[in-house]
Amino acid sequence: MQKLRFYSTLSILFICISSFQQLQPKEKLQWISLEEAEQKMKVEPRPLLIDLYTNWCGWCKVMDRKTYTNQELIQYLNTNFYTVKLNAETKAEVKWKGKIYKFNPSYKTNDIAIAFTNGQLSYPTTVIIPSINDDPQPIAGMLEVHEMEMVTKYFAEKKYGNVSFDRYAKNFKPAWK
Known about the structure:
- By secondary structure, the chain is α/β, with parallel strands linked by helices.
- Helices cover 43% and strands 19% of the residues.
- The strands form 3 sheets. It has a 5-stranded mixed sheet.
């Protein structure tokens, strides 16, 4: 009888702890505007990650649901990057490094998207700008968490420019779930 009471109490305790863990608030990505990111990069240098998307892009929505909800990725990005979510088809003017980019009706996209992707428009595209003086590094396509881990660590750990990405990728061991 005492064993039954012990196991019942233990089970209730386990359920309570599990419920408490599920109620913990989840951290969210700290998306900021491109102008804010530029100012912050000047004060406290960090790489910039831009999620270049469109409203109609199905893979962009999948990436939002699957990749950008991973808590390990969110914590890593919030600590090591400035993050910007940028609609490639915005009709609003976008300022970056003293230049104003406008909607381009010929391409049905904003010129900033053309500049960030070197004219190779594809959605989603993850654009990394290692420092304010570096060129954008566009990575086209939907990235899974393990791919995003490799890419973000490559730039945050300052391997970019020092180690080829192929060599880095060959030795990379993902740690995030």
